[in-house]
Amino acid sequence: MHTKATEGVFVHPNALCESENVGGGTRVWAFAHVMHGARIGRYCNIGDHAFVEDGATIGDRVTLKNGVMVWNGITVEDDAFIGPGVVFTNDLHPRSPRMPEAAGRYAHVENWLTTTVVHRGASIGAGAVILCGVSIGRFAVIGAGAVVTHDVTDHRVAAGNPAEIIGWACRCGAPLSDALTCSVCRRRYRPAGDSLVLFE
Amino acid sequence: MHTKATEGVFVHPNALCESENVGGGTRVWAFAHVMHGARIGRYCNIGDHAFVEDGATIGDRVTLKNGVMVWNGITVEDDAFIGPGVVFTNDLHPRSPRMPEAAGRYAHVENWLTTTVVHRGASIGAGAVILCGVSIGRFAVIGAGAVVTHDVTDHRVAAGNPAEIIGWACRCGAPLSDALTCSVCRRRYRPAGDSLVLFE
Amino acid sequence: MHTKATEGVFVHPNALCESENVGGGTRVWAFAHVMHGARIGRYCNIGDHAFVEDGATIGDRVTLKNGVMVWNGITVEDDAFIGPGVVFTNDLHPRSPRMPEAAGRYAHVENWLTTTVVHRGASIGAGAVILCGVSIGRFAVIGAGAVVTHDVTDHRVAAGNPAEIIGWACRCGAPLSDALTCSVCRRRYRPAGDSLVLFE
């Protein structure tokens, strides 16, 4: 087992953590694999069977539930929740790179790599698939099993295949009624362009 | 490797079985992880890369195909088939538990845990996603790739995203025509409320 | 670790490769499991957490991204790309084989096994689910998150749940406009029945 990680990182004896850029307080669970060159912040939870590739960037306090795959070109900001079995992508028109008809395209990463950002505090539900090139806004919520093909702005809830906007979410995760007051935590919001802002 | 399990349980040398509540005749395959506190019955088959969490309850003769994830709060009754890559959930409005705006909610499990039951003999197709809080009835069939957001009653077949009812299934798994006689095993049924009962 | 494989095969120290029918130049990555009896060609890439079962047949230069599951009865021809988290199936009406009401059906493999073929150069997007019994044509493209329930002919693009045909794809992977000329690689095609052929 390779368990090179910074002080204060817990790496399960059955995990592989090859990155030296993992912050203190982060835990990497059984059969997960964090590659050399992946960057992960502090106090994250990387579930069993998760995979974080060289070139992925993950903030602080992020939860990657079991089996999540995060590739080169994906940025997950602080406090995001990535549900079990969520799959990201980083190539809009993939072919096997060793197929003669496609090998030229894969000779240079800029020919095929398309990036994705999950912004602070967003949640992506179980089993969702995120096409590359999209932005998931702050505190947005992606429903379980959704297939996200377009940007989702801050605080929006999107679900379905392809995902469509179906409502608003509070910072705490609960859905917001049209009155934009959370029935769980009582935060109040007002519209601001495509997003919401808190009444302070 | 931790391989504490009761007599008569097969644990692959590359699996982790930390529970002492696994029944005889059950097999746990490579890279699967059964946590301490998970309960699994007799003669089950737990496929490669499956994950069974502390607090999950699984009956006898259940098949969990590869990569299935079963969490705290999920009950899978006897004889159920859970297809490859099926993902359960146990939180309707997940956020990263260490996000300051959500940490309070995660201080008490009753604030967020929502339970799910898969009843005796049901089948869940490959890659399906099951939202928490639902009941999957006896001998019901969930189509591959379905996203289940509502209860599915006994013997019903549901498919799509979100899943909708599309027919009836026999105990043997075959679809039933409107005549409610199975063309494969010849069992005959009659309607009984939301369900079917066998002509004995 | 079992690492019986032919000369020139790279097997990650945390992988299991039990097959002796793996071609030179193929790489098998961490936590992947290739069973005894699986056949894999040359210059393939078998990602982390992938599973290839006894009875699966995989050609040359195939990419199986992370977490892909390929069962007995599945054939993946040369140069195909199988995206991360793609799940195949091989039983149209699965039940737990040890359930008394279904055990008879599972006594003979011909009672339940349904085969699937992915033809040369096809791509299957991330998280797609492929029902058994279908044929995915040469250079066809299946969108991420699609649920494929019917055949997809050569060069066709299909997406959604259930998957529907939405366009044509070039050998290089790029979508083709109605003029059937690729804007990326400049290949030109003409219609030929359900498929396309190259202008030579």
Could you describe the 3D structure shown?
The structure is a homotrimer of 200-residue chains. Chain A is an all-beta fold. Chain A contains no helices and 25 strands. In chain A, strands 1-4-7-10-13-16-19-21-22-23 form a ten-stranded mixed sheet, with no helix packed on it. A six-stranded parallel sheet of chain A has the order 3-6-9-12-15-18, with no helix packed on it. The radius of gyration of chain A is 18 Å and the shape is globular. The A-C interface holds A 1, 16, 31, 33, 49, 51, 67, 69, 85, 87-89, 93-102, 105, 127, 129, 131, 147, 161-162 and C 14, 30-31, 43, 45, 48-49, 61-63, 66-67, 78-81, 83-85, 121, 123, 125-127, 141, 143-145, 160-161, 169, 171-175, 184-185.
- DSSP, total strands of chain A: 25
Share of helix among residues of chain A?
under 10%
The strands making up the biggest β-sheet of chain A line up spatially as 1-4-7-10-13-16-19-21-22-23
Mean pLDDT metric of chain A: 95
Query: Beta-strand percentage of chain A?
Result: 25-35%
- Main sheet characteristics of chain A: 10 strands, mixed
Mind sketching the topology for me?
3 copies of one chain form a homotrimer.
Chain A: E1 10-11, E2 16-17, E3 21-22, E4 27-28, E5 33-34, E6 39-40, E7 45-46, E8 51-52, E9 57-58, E10 63-64, E11 69-70, E12 74-76, E13 81-82, E14 87-88, E15 116-118, E16 123-124, E17 129-130, E18 135-136, E19 141-142, E20 147-148, E21 156-159, E22 164-169, E23 175-176, E24 189-192, E25 195-198
Parallel strand pairs in A: 1-4, 2-5, 3-6, 4-7, 5-8, 6-9, 7-10, 8-11, 9-12, 10-13, 12-15, 13-16, 14-17, 15-18, 16-19, 17-20, 19-21
Antiparallel strand pairs in A: 21-22, 22-23, 24-25
